Amino acid sequence: MNYRELVTAMTEPEKVDTITLGAGGAAYPAAFALARAGQQVVMVDPKGVMSGNCLAEGCVPSKAVYEVAELYRRVTAAPMSRALGALTGPPDYAQVVAWKDQVQKDRYRQHDGELQAASANLRLVPGTGRLIDSHTVEVNTTGSAKRFQAAQIIIASGADVFVPPIPGAQLCVTSRDLFALEPTVTSLPARLAVIGGGYVGLEVACMLRALGSQVTVIEALPGLLAGMDPDFVTLLAAGIDPTISIQLSASVTAVTKGDGGGFTVHYRIGDADSTVDADLVLMAVGRRPVIPDGATELGLPRAGHGLAVDVSMQVPGYPHLYAPGDVNGRSMLFHSAVRQSLVAAHNILAGNRVVDRMDFDSVPATIFTAPQGAYVGLTRAKAAEQARQVVEAAYPMADDSRAQILGDTYGEIRLFCDAQSLRLVGGWVVGADAAQLIGQIGESVAAGLTAYDLARFADQHPTAAEGIGKAARTLVG
């Protein structure tokens, strides 16, 4: 593109109905819905493919590794190992990575097909988008720029790994190095140090420990999984492999490279300095919303590290601007982003009037550790904060036939109901099939079901889901 063409492209923006900044879970559900309704939609994404970090380096590839590690953990632990006999050894980590890559490639092909099917009204433009004003986006690619003008803009730029300014942080890997397509880490470290005791750090710690790594987790705060119900965290943490060394209230001061090619993590607990040697150091201290260029200059309001949004997904003061997903920082989960994206689409199709609202309280979350832990809605700590009177019902996994079949009997299903109406307001699951069970509990919360409703439902046997009804029956008979 010559100078004249560049100037023309920048001064005469192409007019479309809606632009999305991003092409991940907070963007493409809305883009498809709007395109099907006849809108001309442009998705802008620097990856140049339709997917977000979930597929690129997050939940999908990490769970592909997790499922292999979890299967191996179960079949090598008593009592299931007695039925199977001795195995020759853990799986080859390079083959585990190859399996993860295959899952990602399959999903990328699936997304390509979906995009092609919607191509009449929907385009994906590779590049980085910058807000020029509240209706105009400039897309920059290598050596060129193009402007689009839209009636609505969906800011769905997601989040990225946060790396704190610790000396030697550049020596660490992040989840991207483990889970991106064709990642840089393809062999299992004999010794792994994890900086951060959030869900990413603990998930990696559990899966690589199950595959054979010696693991140390270093967390600056006094407890793991900051922001989650402390009683839930205590229950979950008590079931984690005790051979994983967990150092709490430990501030990392530096990471250095050792003489033998390994690394040393230096940290301080109180006045005492300590170190741990490792062959690989994972930086897992959290993720931060990615605020697109131009948002600050426009004065778009913030909430914490993210953009402020109403339950309509609209940016306050800008009814034609929407910010679903990780960029608002309110519920940084893929499935939450998808629902937020659809809320935005429904309100756009209603002429930017609020006809749909996001219910953040019924979004479930799962920590894919061993054991799994999952929660939704109002649990014990939140109920106490709000002075909300709740009654609890629990069912131990030790009594569950599915958990006994798996040889994984640690944990419980716990329900929280309004003390007066017995309407379900929240719950948690620790143990077998927690990720599947929490969705059923979350749907019940969203639907306003009561303990009576749950107790009357004849769930399948032998599945852990029948424990939900059994827990409810401890309240209503």
From TrEMBL:
The active site is at 461 (proton acceptor). FAD binds at residues 63, 129, 326, 332-335. SUPFAM superfamilies: FAD/NAD(P)-binding domain (SSF51905), FAD/NAD-linked reductases, dimerisation (C-terminal) domain (SSF55424). Keywords: FAD, Flavoprotein, NAD, Nucleotide-binding. Its cofactor is FAD. One of its GO terms (biological process) is 2-oxoglutarate metabolic process. Residues 18-340 form the FAD/NAD(P)-binding domain. The keyword Nucleotide-binding applies. Residues 363-471 form the Pyridine nucleotide-disulphide oxidoreductase dimerisation domain. The keyword NAD applies. NAD(+) binds at residues 196-203, 219, 286. GO terms for molecular function: dihydrolipoyl dehydrogenase (NADH) activity; flavin adenine dinucleotide binding. Binds 1 FAD per subunit. Pfam families: Pyr_redox_2 (PF07992), Pyr_redox_dim (PF02852). Disulfide bonds join 54-59. Belongs to the class-I pyridine nucleotide-disulfide oxidoreductase family. This is Dihydrolipoyl dehydrogenase. The lineage of its organism: Bacteria, Bacillati, Actinomycetota, Actinomycetes, Mycobacteriales.
